[in-house]
Amino acid sequence: MRRTGTFITFEGGEGCGKSTHIERVAARLRARGREVVTLREPGGTDVGEQIRHVLQYSKQSVGMVPETELLLFCASRAQLVREIVAPALGDGKIVLADRFFDSTSVYQGVGRKIDSEKVAAINRFAIGNCVPDLTVVIDLDPRIGLERAKGREQFDRMENQALDFHQRVRQGYLDLARRESQRVKLVDGSRGLAEVGEQIWGLIKHVL
Ligand code: T5A
Q1: Which among 10, 74, 99 is the best mutation to test ligand 1's pocket, defined by most ligand atoms within 8 Å of the CB?
Q2: Cβ of 157 below 6 Å from ligand 1
């Protein structure tokens, strides 16, 4: 299917503000008459939501090994790409995704220390040619992000990782933005909501 839509992904550590800004961007785009699809990862499909439960909230998953975790994130994504993302892009829609394959490169590759070439190969298999047009990384000190995310009562496997893990994740995103500076753009998430929102809107207007 020929791709006429635009694919924008949002990335960053826990509680950096992705969901908040996706909602705001979607509202601004819809107010301008654009067709927008919003998604979250892992999940976004029936199959993916079941995988999300195993990955995130099931206390029986505490002993999951990093290789299993990597494959489950990619399995959820393979379904999402073929069921939702590729058809929406074929129809000319704007797809806004809360995390995509960069989360796997950073969390499983850098955070869990799985060989980066293996992660890249599995990522490629899962997404095919569905690479984002723009990736917004909201950079934030993990101590602030984890504090913001704390409000939730549900057990979350990733948020329970040591601070050192989250610091590696942050550095992973900073390195990614340096390596892929055409596609991946950094935004300072420590600023106020309105200021971060305007910076993101500027990037989106540019890519559209
Ligand atoms: N994961 C995911 C992997 O390990 N590998 C993968 O391949 C994939 C896809 C997903 C977890 O899975 C991992 C990464 C994650 O650990 P999740 O529950 O979806 O888990 O968690 P997150 O994606 O991290 O989402 P969060 O909801 O934790 O964070 P958000 O969406 O970035 O933050 P948001 O918008 O909910 O904001 C948090 C709070 O901060 C406030 C908001 O109002 C909200 O209260 N806020 C601000 N406050 C002040 N100033 C600002 N600028 C603010 N921006 C937001």
Answers
A1: 99
A2: no
Ligand 1, atom 4, residue with closest C-alpha: 107
The predicted-structure confidence for 85-112, as pLDDT tens digits, reads as follows: 999 999 999 999 999 999 999 999 999 9
- pTM for this predicted structure: 0.96
Q: How far does residue 15's CA lie from ligand 1's centre (Å)?
A: 4
Q: Terminal CA-to-CA distance of the chain, rounded, Å?
A: 20
Q: At what angle do helices 116-127 and 66-80 cross, to 10 degrees?
A: 20
Alpha carbon distances (Å) from 11 to 4, 61, 99: 23, 24, 5
Contact 88 CB / ligand 1 (< 6 Å)? no
CATH tag for 6-207 (out of 3.40.50.300, 3.40.718.10, 3.40.1280.10, 2.102.10.10):
3.40.50.300
**SS3 category, 110:** helix
